[in-house]
Write a structure and sequence with these properties.
The chain is mainly beta and about 120 residues long. The chain is built from one helix and six strands.
């Protein structure tokens, strides 16, 4: 995790530290968020401007990028309704036929799998 001082931008250098927190809240009664549960993920990155172009470097020690089953492919499939994005599309086929439960929380049966493909610009 970045320390507070590391999130400050030095005006003489075109390096931008970035911390993004994504949070998903379940539906709450009467609009009170205290009664609902939430899932969150924090991603850290550093972007550097070099010759007019921005280059990103994501924290390589972040354990949250690989599929929790095969540990090699990037996560691209979310389990619904719990919203855990924890598997690659190939491994997502397995729980459907074995346990039908999320590999993270194991609490709820899998209703649907949502595959999210991210274009990282490598095809350009």
């Amino acid at each position: 995790m970045f320390e507070d001082g590391e999130l400050l931008k030095d005006r003489d250098v075109d390096i931008y530290p970035l911390a993004v927190k994504a949070e998903a809240l379940t539906d709450c009664q009467n609009g009170n968020s205290d009664n609902g549960s939430s899932n969150s993920q924090i991603t850290q990155a550093v972007f550097e401007k070099d010759k007019g172009e921005y280059h990103g470097e994501v924290d390589a020690n972040d354990p949250g990028k690989e599929c929790v089953i095969c540990l090699s492919e990037p996560r691209d499939t979310t389990v619904l309704p719990c919203r855990h994005m924890c598997m690659c599309s190939e491994c997502a086929k397995v729980p459907r036929f074995q346990t039908n439960r999320c590999p993270i929380c194991r609490q709820q049966p899998v209703e649907r799998l949502l595959e999210i493909k991210v274009n990282n610009g490598a095809d350009e």
